[in-house]
Hints:
The chain is of the alpha+beta class. It has two domains: 2-63 and 161-327, Aminopeptidase (3-Layer(aba) Sandwich); 65-147, Elongation Factor Tu (Ef-tu), domain 3. The protein contains nine helices and 17 strands. It has helices at residues 2-9, 19-29, 87-90, 132-136, 163-178, 199-208, 251-264, 280-283, 311-327, and strands at residues 35-38, 44-48, 54-60, 65-71, 77-82, 94-97, 102-107, 123-126, 144-147, 152-154, 157-160, 185-191, 212-219, 238-243, 268-272, 292-298, 307-310. A hairpin with a 2-residue loop joins β10 (152-154) and β11. The longest helix is centred in the C-terminal third of the chain and has 17 residues, at 311-327. The two termini are 26 Å apart. The relative contact order is 0.19. The protein binds zinc ion (ZN). Zinc ion (ZN) binds at residues 60, 164-165, 194, 217-218, 278.
Amino acid sequence: MLKLLEKLTQIPAPSGSEERIHNAIREEIAPFVDEISVDALGNLIAHKKGNGARVMFAAHTDEIGLIVTFITDKGLLKVSNLGGVSAINALYQRVCFANGTEGVVSLDNTNLEDGKTPRLSDLYVDIGASTQEEAEKKVCIGDTAAFSGKFSTQGNMAVSKALDDRAGCVVLIETIKQIKSHTNDLYFVFTASEELGLRGAKAAAFTVNPDYAVAIDVTRTGDVPGKLEMAVRLGGGAAIKIKDSSFMAHPYIKQRMTEICEEKGIPHQFEVLEQGGTDSGAIHLSGGGVPSGCISIPTRYIHSPAEMIDIRDLEAAIRLAVSLIEKGL
Ligand SMILES: [Zn+2]
């Protein structure tokens, strides 16, 4: 499982370029599902047939990144954000474009008052070009780049870029592999462009038209110094989401998840996330409304190149998803 997590986190797939991760996922799940398709927005949809209610599981394949807006006469790239990128997290990080071009995010402090926090507009990406012409041989306006950040483990801790949401993708993949029996008609959707406002999930929910939906994504934790007061902590188990800024979990799904965790002895905790959302936010509003829930993986330093999870929480999330499917919704 950790080998798979390493492999998936290291594939660059900023929002809008999710196709780069499709082959890796397809290879893993193909023997275990009935059909796999890719829709117009870049959602990879796997179907495992059943006779019961139609259930959609979703984990997003895209990650935050940068998009080139302008190339200066000195060959430096001005960039805008793809998803929730903060200048502080981006500064002095390495980025990688689809064609393999690498760059370093740096700061132009000409217009920045001393002591003020930089904005994205103060940053540029240096790809080692000295003129606009030289830069344009490697990069075009509109090209997108992902941050680099190697995968490593230490004890129960795993650190990498893009654990948001390759950790969720791994939960779905492992779940697909481990299910022994099911009655629900199952759709596993590896969604596109979540970081741009849940766009892929919205289209996929229209296509799948589920009776119930469960997203798998990372969530923040309140166990590090700072202003965020939140009950979720690393190592506390799979987080059963109750609310975030995009939706409220349906009481039936929340109750079903809780019962299963109690019955099976799966470590779990409850999550109320005051700022942030996930695919369930779009899915639950599709059609005439879809009772939805979310299994979250507690994660420190989200949207940085060094996101951190506890591997035991990931395992708990897999056990919960497998049990939910085997018991049925
Ligand atoms: Zn996410």
